[in-house]
Amino acid sequence: MSYEVEILLVEDSPEDVELTIRALRRNQLANDIQVVEDGAEALDFLFCRGAYEGRPSQYPKLVLLDLKLPKLSGMEVLRAIRADERTKAIPVVVLTSSKEDRDLVDGYQLGVNAYAQKPVDFEQFSETVRQIGMFWMLVNQAPRPGTLMAGKARGA
After folding, report:
1. FRET partner for 104 with CA separation of 20 to 30 A, picked from 54, 68, 132, 144?
2. Is residue 57 a contact partner of residue 85, using CB atoms and an 8 Å limit?
3. Where exactly are the structural domains of the chain?
4. Residue 149 has pLDDT above 60, yes or no
5. Residue pair 137/30 in contact by the 8 Å Cβ criterion
6. What distance in Å separates the CA atoms of residue 46 and residue 5, rounded to the nearest whole number?
7. Is pLDDT at 29 greater than 70 in this prediction?
8. What does the angle CA 84 – CA 55 – CA 38 come to, to the nearest 5 degrees?
């Protein structure tokens, strides 16, 4: 298994996983996509523990995060990502079916980079994923994960 992951997709719906991957690949936005089905597995992957112990500590360029997940919620995953110096610079985009204003507010308070509701319509869903991928994979400039910690060590 390759661990040079461009996108970590945290999603428990097999249908949404398939649609997301299809939209990303059809638009040539990511070759290496790691899918995890729950919040605990997402953190295990990011922090190289559990089933991912021993993998190289390489971080994805983007995390696409559903909120309604088994084991740990998307908010708990986001909180853990932002709390750790190694991962706090990774762009995280919430891609969820939640229409709760509280989820939107909480997500931004916890440091999400973007928040998108999953459209029900297949074509709209594909277009939403394409737009997210275009911006975060091709346009956005983000520091490499771990560089914020290195900057603090230099006194920057």
Report:
1. 144
2. no
3. 7-153
4. no
5. yes
6. 10
7. yes
8. 60
